[in-house]
Amino acid sequence: MRNGIAVFLLLACGIALADERAVIVEKGKDRFETAFAPGGRLQLEVRSGDVRISGTDSNKISIYYEGRHGNDVGDVAVRCEKQMGNAELSISGGPPNEFQIRIEVPRETELRVRMPFGELTIENVRGGKDVELHAGQVNMEIGDPRDYSRIEASVMTGELNLGPLRISKGGLFRSYKQNGPGKYRLYAHIGSGELDLN
Known about the structure:
The protein is mostly beta strands and 198 residues long. It has one helix and 13 strands, in the order H-E-E-E-E-E-E-E-E-E-E-E-E-E. The chain has one domain. Strand 6 and strand 7 form a beta hairpin. The radius of gyration is 19 Å and the shape is globular.
C-alpha cells in the first residue's frame, strides 16, 4: 500500500512539474538561448525589421543580432514563456535600421509568427506555419505542398507567388486555398506587400 502511495505521489509531482510554466526575461544581451525540443509549437511576436528564422539540428532556440547596428542591443528585450514543450517568445526594442534578427529553431517546429512591418524569411523549418505581417515581404520555404492538409495564402494588395504550385498573382485581394493529403497546415497573410512561398 505504501509503495502504491509513493508511486502515485511521484507521478503527481511529475505531472505538476510538466504543467509548470517557465518564464525567461532578458534585456540588453547580445544573444539569447533556451532549450526547446523538436516538434514543439513556437509562437513568435517580433518587432518590425529584418528577421530570418532558420531550422537547425539543435534542440534549442537561439537568437542573434547582426548588421551595422547589430551590437546596439541595450534596449533589446526578449521574453520567453515555456510550458508543456511549447513556447511563446517576443522580441522588442533595438535600432530601427540596419539591424537584423536571426532566430534558429529545431528543424521540426510548428511556427506561429506575428510581425508588424519588414522582411521575414523562414527557411529549413518543417511543420505547420501560421504567419501574418501588416506590410512588407515574406520569403518562406514550404517544401513539398503535399506535406500540408490545408494551404491558405493571401495579400490584400501586392503580389502572391507560390513557386512549387506555379502560381503567381498580383493586385488587390489576391488569395489561394488548397486542401491536401499532408498533416501540416499553412496559413500566410500580408496586408500590403509580397508573399513568396518557395
